[in-house]
Amino acid sequence: MLSPLSVAQLVEITGGKATGKGYPALIAQISIDSRQIIHPEQTLFVALRGAKADGADFIPALIQEGIRFFLVHETWEIPSGLLERASFIAVKNTRDALQAIAAFQRKQFGKPVVGITGSNGKTIVKEWLGQVLSQSYTVAKSPKSYNSQVGVPLSIFGIQPYHQVALLEAGVSRSGEMAPLSWMIQPELGIFTNIGSAHEEGFEGLESKIREKLQLFSECKLLIYCKDQALVSREIEERFDPSRLISWSANPGSDFTVSVKKKEGQTKIILMKLDLSTMTFQVPFTDSASIENITHVIIAALTLGQDIPAIQEGLNHLKSVDMRLTLKPGVNDSLLIDDTYNNDLAGLKVALEFLSQQRPKRSKILILSDLLQQGIPEKIYSEVAELIQSYSLDRIIGVGKEVARLKDFFPDRFENYPSTEDLLLHLDPEKFQNELILITGARPFEFERVVNRLQQRIHGTTLEINLNALTHNFNFFKRQVKPETKMMVMVKAFAYGGGAAEIANHLQTMGADYLAVAFSDEGVSLRKQGIRLPIMVLNPVEESFDLLREYDLEPVVFSPDFFRKLGKYVQNHQIQLSIHLDMDTGMHRLGFEKHHLPELKDLIRSFPELKIASLYTHLVGADEAEHEEFSLSQLRQFMEMKAEVETVLDYKPLIHALNSAGIIRYPEFQMDMVRLGIGLYGVEVTGKHDAALKPVSTLKTTISQVKTLPPGATVGYSRKGKLPNGGKIATLAIGYADGYDRRFSQGKGYVLIQSKKAPIIGNVCMDMVMVDVSEIDAKAGDEAIIYGEQISLKELADRIGTIPYELLTNISTRVKRVYYLD
Ligand SMILES: *Cc1c(COP(=O)(O)O)cnc(C)c1O
Questions:
Q1: Does the record bear Translocase in its keywords (predicted)?
Q2: pLDDT value at 534 more than 60
Q3: What does the pLDDT read at residue 443?
């Protein structure tokens, strides 16, 4: 942080009121996450309220850990006893106060701040500009895509006095969000990357989306934009004085006229200024999106005064690497966190935080390279050491000369290798067993080679799960219900195919209240992998009673007979067990019917050891409007049944009825809890809020071979694929054994290769499928998308007459799941 603050200053900045005990120390760190605190005595903890639990809940524990300063909501009643032990600043809204502190800190930074927004490319432009500028300057930048209402303040707190330029990214998803971001960032130079065409729920239309984003630049001295985006440039030119604008275009008349020449995997970008002087840059990309992003980068670097040779040197090192933080299966049950594209402290902090949120493993290992161009090494590595210290790692492997300084801080846990080559010589994958390994390094160290050595080798099909999208969808549903309504999340069937342990773990950190699985075994597996949330088991069997007890699982009880058996079991063992009662109001699958109620009440009285944790019913047609009348009659019947059951209870069980579709259609029946399923995974089955959810999973595979076939050739079993005029086909490494449905055969399905449609030709085989690529310049090794952002699950399901649920849950466990934060 740039400027340490006293409590008096904070009161002034936030307009809050200080109470509690006074401490003379200055605040040099700000944290919103109770697990992320390094110097407790100089940290201000900001208790945010969100979809997640109220941050204030952690305050008593944090005081134990030595934190003395808290920013809290004025409505939060400070528990007695705490006032003597800490300082509290009470404000109307802690998020606004956090932003006010950020705006204040930003003002302390006298060097240039670049603000970047747009629909696509903003993170990559920020990262690449950071790389290019770091040839000449020390650069602060938002970690990953920390561009939100809370991400931006955290990015600003990461700016240090020694930084010479700061790059801050701003992202908005609805009207009204940019004003606070703009107020905090106060950019001098702006970059508007572009505007996507996708409809977004939070905006009325494309123009209103552009206008919202442009607010970031309202006080900017200079704004860089591409004139060839007609709508964007019209909106910009209407609002900004020409003297503040730097335009570029493929056509003459802009500040920079840009022409490109592509040759053998390289592109020459030639910029001509209005005075007809030209300069030429060479870049290792040919795709148009990368060229557009790089043009923004070059013009921004020139505007900031960087010289041309330094810019070219920076461009030479750009690689289209995956910037995402990914979690993937490693050798011998290890888990790898792949962060092979990180080069600063802010990024390291994000990665360590992600590490600390993973399920417990035998030990935690960090593989880390030198941090390049990050200012004074003496200082940087002591900061790195402090950061690492707070995450209690078991082993630290440093690669490079500078990082060797960590030896002084961790003499017993630190190993050093001069180069990646040298590390690889000594790295034996068999020495790793059930470990959690974070691999993070600067680009030139090529740590992808280390990841390659340590990751589990599986064939070319992967299911990628976007954890940010999962969070987004969870929060969307959380916003549809009252803050006090609990969220149970269905992670049955391997979390709808997404991978139960990782998704349950992520839900745990997001603040879900309950999980539900179909069978006891699924619950046992979650417990064994360190999941602590309460778990409801939908379909327990008598044989699993011991497991329920041993692993603290809560069975659904659905018949008098089952109730009696379980009751006798707990009486014999002299234990108590929490159970859930399923009321059948029309599903006619499992559950108590109306005529069972007298018997049920007797049973409840006879077996008080069985504690009724909840009472629920399940709607049969919540997704479809045509069943509305039936759904409402189910809900009414449920209310009657629950009232009757409650007459024999002297405590209140949780009452719940709504699945994903129900949450959208009948929010007035949310009661104490809702049960979120398919919606979390990005499918909005009612069709009312299609644009509000983000697709969570992308199924990808690779091309194994490309063949050119003569006229009349047939493809695959039974000669079902016909090429009367000949053509070109590609064989993909996915088949029905991976869960690629055989009903997609013979043109019913298609995949995307280079964003172009390649129809299935012939029948889907067990492990392979052939697609027609006659019109696509495809080669072996290229990626093929089965579904994801550009092919919706709903569309695919429609094509073969099924539902998205089936497609999701059919993906075989042999397909590698990879999780990422973008
Ligand atoms: C699977 C399931 C849900 C979740 O349904 P979605 O349609 O996926 O939201 C809710 N309740 C019960 C009892 C379920 O079995």
A1: no
A2: yes
A3: 79
Whether 616 is a known active-site residue: answer: no
CATH architecture label of 7-100: 3-Layer(aba) Sandwich (3.40)
Probe residue for ligand 1, chosen from 675, 680, 689, 803 as the CB with the greatest number of ligand atoms within 8 Å? 675
**Ligand 1-lining residues (CB < 6 angstroms):** 490, 538, 618, 659-661, 675, 677-679
Tell which CATH classification among 3.40.50.1970, 3.30.1330.60, 2.40.37.10, 3.50.50.60 matches the domain 697-820.
2.40.37.10
pLDDT at 197: 67
Report the DSSP pairing between strands 727-732 and 769-772.
Answer: antiparallel
CA 242 to chain centre: 39
What is the CATH number that goes with domain 326-454?
A: 3.90.190.20
Q: Which CATH superfamily is domain 467-692 in?
A: Alanine racemase (3.20.20.10)
Most confident of 36-40, 62-66, 439-443, 603-607: 603-607
pLDDT over threshold 80, residue 265: no
What CATH number matches the domain at 109-316, 3.40.140.10, 3.40.1190.10, 3.30.420.40, 2.60.40.10?
3.40.1190.10
Residues that constitute the known binding site? 589, 766
* pLDDT for the residue numbered 322: 63
Ligand 1: centre distance to CA 808 (Å) = 14
Mutate to test the pocket of ligand 1, among 658, 659, 670 (most ligand atoms within 8 A of CB): 659
Binding site for substrate, by residue number, is 589, 766
- Please identify which residue in the block is written with the tokens 């701003």: 170
Q: How far is the CA of 654 from the centre of ligand 1 (A)?
A: 17
Given a cut of 80, whether residue 459 has pLDDT beyond it is no
Q: Which of 122, 126, 209, 492 is catalytic?
A: 492
Mean pLDDT rounded to a whole number for the chain? 93
**How confident is the model over 802-806, as a mean pLDDT?**
96
The encoded tokens of residue 323 equal 């910037």
At 6-34, the pLDDT tens digits run 999 999 999 999 999 888 889 999 999 87
How far is the C-alpha of 73 from the C-alpha of 279, rounded, in Å? 55
Which residues contact residue 395 at a Cβ distance below 8 angstroms, ignoring those fewer than 6 apart? Answer: 363, 364, 365, 366, 413, 415
Question: What's the Rg (C-alpha) of the chain?
Answer: 29
Domain boundaries, the chain: 7-100, 109-316, 326-454, 467-692, 697-820
The pLDDT tens digits of the residues spanning 636-653 come to 999 999 999 999 999 999
Q: Is the CB of residue 251 less than 8 Å from the CB of residue 228?
A: yes
Q: Give yes or no: 551 in active site.
A: no
